[in-house]
# Entry
Amino acid sequence: MREFIYYSETARTSGNFKDLMRAGRMDIVCHVVIASFFLSNKMRDDVRLHLVFNGPPDAPKHLELVSTPEMSEFISKKDVAGLIKRMLYKYKKGQKRQVFPGCFIEKKSFSKVVKELSDQGKKIFLLDEKGDDIRQTDITNGVFVIGDHEGLPKKKKKELKTLAQMVSLGNEIYFASQSVVILNNELDRRLQ
Ligand SMILES: C[S@@+](CC[C@H](N)C(=O)[O-])C[C@H]1O[C@@H](n2cnc3c(N)ncnc32)[C@H](O)[C@@H]1O
# Structure
Protein backbone atom coordinates (compact mmCIF):
# COMPACT_ATOMS: atom_id res chain seq x y z
CA MET A 1 0.00 0.00 0.00
CA ARG A 2 1.28 3.47 -0.81
CA GLU A 3 0.10 6.00 1.75
CA PHE A 4 -0.37 9.76 1.55
CA ILE A 5 -1.64 12.46 3.90
CA TYR A 6 -2.96 15.67 2.40
CA TYR A 7 -3.46 18.44 4.97
CA SER A 8 -5.74 21.35 4.17
CA GLU A 9 -5.85 24.22 6.63
CA THR A 10 -8.98 25.66 4.97
CA ALA A 11 -11.11 22.84 3.46
CA ARG A 12 -14.68 22.92 4.76
CA THR A 13 -15.61 20.39 7.41
CA SER A 14 -19.30 20.13 6.47
CA GLY A 15 -20.89 18.98 3.22
CA ASN A 16 -22.99 22.12 2.56
CA PHE A 17 -20.87 23.72 -0.14
CA LYS A 18 -21.48 24.39 -3.81
CA ASP A 19 -18.52 26.36 -5.12
CA LEU A 20 -15.37 24.27 -4.64
CA MET A 21 -13.06 27.30 -4.76
CA ARG A 22 -15.07 28.91 -1.93
CA ALA A 23 -15.13 25.76 0.16
CA GLY A 24 -11.56 26.28 1.38
CA ARG A 25 -10.04 25.15 -1.95
CA MET A 26 -11.93 21.85 -2.15
CA ASP A 27 -10.95 21.92 -5.86
CA ILE A 28 -7.36 21.11 -4.79
CA VAL A 29 -8.62 18.25 -2.61
CA CYS A 30 -10.40 16.79 -5.67
CA HIS A 31 -7.23 17.03 -7.76
CA VAL A 32 -5.27 15.28 -5.01
CA VAL A 33 -7.82 12.43 -4.89
CA ILE A 34 -7.67 12.03 -8.69
CA ALA A 35 -3.85 12.10 -8.72
CA SER A 36 -3.75 9.53 -5.93
CA PHE A 37 -6.15 6.93 -7.34
CA PHE A 38 -6.60 7.38 -11.09
CA LEU A 39 -4.42 6.20 -13.95
CA SER A 40 -5.37 6.65 -17.60
CA ASN A 41 -6.83 3.18 -18.01
CA LYS A 42 -7.56 1.94 -14.50
CA MET A 43 -7.70 2.79 -10.82
CA ARG A 44 -4.78 2.09 -8.56
CA ASP A 45 -5.43 -0.82 -6.20
CA ASP A 46 -2.78 -0.02 -3.57
CA VAL A 47 -3.50 3.50 -2.24
CA ARG A 48 -4.46 4.77 1.20
CA LEU A 49 -5.13 8.50 1.22
CA HIS A 50 -5.71 10.49 4.39
CA LEU A 51 -7.35 13.89 3.95
CA VAL A 52 -7.20 16.10 7.01
CA PHE A 53 -9.41 19.20 6.84
CA ASN A 54 -9.02 22.05 9.30
CA GLY A 55 -11.53 24.56 7.91
CA PRO A 56 -14.89 25.66 9.39
CA PRO A 57 -17.38 24.78 10.83
CA ASP A 58 -16.34 21.63 12.71
CA ALA A 59 -12.58 20.98 12.37
CA PRO A 60 -10.72 18.72 12.33
CA LYS A 61 -12.03 15.99 10.03
CA HIS A 62 -10.08 12.95 8.88
CA LEU A 63 -11.33 11.33 5.69
CA GLU A 64 -9.61 8.07 4.82
CA LEU A 65 -9.90 6.57 1.33
CA VAL A 66 -8.51 3.13 0.66
CA SER A 67 -8.38 1.27 -2.67
CA THR A 68 -11.05 -1.43 -2.79
CA PRO A 69 -12.22 -3.69 -5.64
CA GLU A 70 -15.65 -1.93 -5.56
CA MET A 71 -14.16 1.57 -5.70
CA SER A 72 -14.89 2.31 -9.36
CA GLU A 73 -18.61 1.84 -8.61
CA PHE A 74 -18.84 4.81 -6.26
CA ILE A 75 -15.91 7.04 -7.15
CA SER A 76 -15.92 8.80 -10.50
CA LYS A 77 -13.27 11.24 -11.70
CA LYS A 78 -16.12 13.57 -12.70
CA ASP A 79 -17.65 13.71 -9.23
CA VAL A 80 -14.97 13.44 -6.59
CA ALA A 81 -16.45 16.56 -4.97
CA GLY A 82 -19.78 14.71 -4.65
CA LEU A 83 -18.04 11.85 -2.85
CA ILE A 84 -16.28 14.21 -0.42
CA LYS A 85 -19.56 16.04 0.21
CA ARG A 86 -21.41 12.79 0.93
CA MET A 87 -18.66 11.68 3.29
CA LEU A 88 -18.84 14.97 5.19
CA TYR A 89 -22.65 14.80 5.38
CA LYS A 90 -22.54 11.25 6.77
CA TYR A 91 -20.14 12.11 9.60
CA LYS A 92 -21.45 10.94 13.02
CA LYS A 93 -20.04 12.38 16.21
CA GLY A 94 -17.89 9.94 18.18
CA GLN A 95 -17.60 7.38 15.34
CA LYS A 96 -15.17 6.38 12.64
CA ARG A 97 -17.86 5.83 10.04
CA GLN A 98 -17.52 3.83 6.82
CA VAL A 99 -19.60 5.75 4.31
CA PHE A 100 -18.74 3.61 1.26
CA PRO A 101 -16.45 0.58 1.00
CA GLY A 102 -12.99 1.89 1.90
CA CYS A 103 -14.22 5.46 2.67
CA PHE A 104 -14.16 6.47 6.32
CA ILE A 105 -14.75 9.73 8.17
CA GLU A 106 -14.05 10.67 11.77
CA LYS A 107 -13.04 13.63 13.88
CA LYS A 108 -9.27 13.39 14.26
CA SER A 109 -6.48 15.94 14.17
CA PHE A 110 -3.49 15.98 11.82
CA SER A 111 -1.06 15.36 14.72
CA LYS A 112 -3.04 12.33 15.88
CA VAL A 113 -3.24 10.83 12.38
CA VAL A 114 0.53 11.22 11.91
CA LYS A 115 1.38 9.98 15.42
CA GLU A 116 -0.75 6.84 14.99
CA LEU A 117 0.92 5.98 11.68
CA SER A 118 4.36 6.59 13.16
CA ASP A 119 3.44 4.36 16.14
CA GLN A 120 2.50 1.62 13.63
CA GLY A 121 6.15 1.69 12.49
CA LYS A 122 5.57 3.72 9.33
CA LYS A 123 8.24 6.21 8.29
CA ILE A 124 6.84 9.73 7.95
CA PHE A 125 8.13 11.89 5.08
CA LEU A 126 7.20 15.54 4.75
CA LEU A 127 7.23 16.67 1.12
CA ASP A 128 9.14 19.94 0.98
CA GLU A 129 11.39 21.33 -1.72
CA LYS A 130 14.06 22.05 0.91
CA GLY A 131 14.27 18.40 1.99
CA ASP A 132 16.63 15.57 1.03
CA ASP A 133 16.45 14.45 -2.59
CA ILE A 134 13.79 11.72 -2.74
CA ARG A 135 15.85 9.85 -5.35
CA GLN A 136 18.65 9.41 -2.80
CA THR A 137 16.30 8.42 0.03
CA ASP A 138 15.11 5.01 1.16
CA ILE A 139 11.34 5.55 1.20
CA THR A 140 10.35 1.98 2.05
CA ASN A 141 7.34 1.82 4.38
CA GLY A 142 6.85 5.56 3.95
CA VAL A 143 3.82 7.78 4.51
CA PHE A 144 4.05 11.04 2.58
CA VAL A 145 2.67 14.32 3.96
CA ILE A 146 1.68 16.97 1.42
CA GLY A 147 0.66 20.53 2.25
CA ASP A 148 -2.10 22.63 0.67
CA HIS A 149 -1.76 25.69 -1.62
CA GLU A 150 -0.14 27.64 1.23
CA GLY A 151 2.16 24.77 2.22
CA LEU A 152 2.06 23.01 5.58
CA PRO A 153 1.56 25.66 8.33
CA LYS A 154 4.66 26.39 10.45
CA LYS A 155 2.94 25.03 13.56
CA LYS A 156 2.25 21.69 11.87
CA LYS A 157 5.80 21.52 10.52
CA LYS A 158 7.04 22.01 14.07
CA GLU A 159 4.87 19.12 15.27
CA LEU A 160 6.53 16.90 12.67
CA LYS A 161 10.08 17.97 13.50
CA THR A 162 11.06 14.88 15.50
CA LEU A 163 8.74 12.48 13.64
CA ALA A 164 9.38 13.18 9.97
CA GLN A 165 12.15 13.42 7.42
CA MET A 166 11.79 16.16 4.79
CA VAL A 167 12.11 14.95 1.21
CA SER A 168 12.25 16.98 -1.97
CA LEU A 169 11.00 16.28 -5.48
CA GLY A 170 13.33 18.93 -6.93
CA ASN A 171 13.79 22.69 -6.90
CA GLU A 172 10.52 23.69 -8.55
CA ILE A 173 7.41 24.15 -6.43
CA TYR A 174 4.61 21.92 -7.67
CA PHE A 175 0.88 21.89 -7.01
CA ALA A 176 -0.06 19.44 -4.26
CA SER A 177 -1.69 17.18 -6.88
CA GLN A 178 1.37 17.36 -9.13
CA SER A 179 3.50 16.33 -6.16
CA VAL A 180 1.28 13.25 -5.75
CA VAL A 181 1.67 12.40 -9.45
CA ILE A 182 5.48 12.64 -9.22
CA LEU A 183 5.48 10.64 -6.00
CA ASN A 184 3.28 7.94 -7.53
CA ASN A 185 5.62 7.77 -10.51
CA GLU A 186 8.66 7.47 -8.22
CA LEU A 187 6.94 4.63 -6.35
CA ASP A 188 5.89 2.95 -9.63
CA ARG A 189 9.46 3.00 -10.91
CA ARG A 190 10.85 1.58 -7.68
CA LEU A 191 8.26 -1.20 -7.60
CA GLN A 192 8.77 -2.18 -11.28
C1 LIG B 1 1.54 24.30 -3.92
S1 LIG B 1 2.71 23.59 -2.84
C2 LIG B 1 2.77 24.78 -1.54
C3 LIG B 1 3.28 26.09 -1.96
C4 LIG B 1 3.52 27.03 -0.80
N1 LIG B 1 3.42 28.39 -1.25
C5 LIG B 1 4.88 26.76 -0.18
O1 LIG B 1 5.83 27.47 -0.55
O2 LIG B 1 5.01 25.82 0.62
C6 LIG B 1 1.81 22.28 -2.10
C7 LIG B 1 2.63 21.19 -1.48
O3 LIG B 1 3.27 20.41 -2.49
C8 LIG B 1 4.47 19.84 -1.99
N2 LIG B 1 5.56 20.25 -2.88
C9 LIG B 1 5.52 21.17 -3.89
N3 LIG B 1 6.70 21.23 -4.51
C10 LIG B 1 7.53 20.33 -3.91
C11 LIG B 1 8.88 19.92 -4.12
N4 LIG B 1 9.64 20.44 -5.05
N5 LIG B 1 9.40 18.95 -3.30
C12 LIG B 1 8.61 18.38 -2.34
N6 LIG B 1 7.34 18.74 -2.11
C13 LIG B 1 6.79 19.69 -2.88
C14 LIG B 1 4.66 20.36 -0.57
O4 LIG B 1 4.21 19.38 0.34
C15 LIG B 1 3.76 21.60 -0.55
O5 LIG B 1 3.27 21.89 0.73
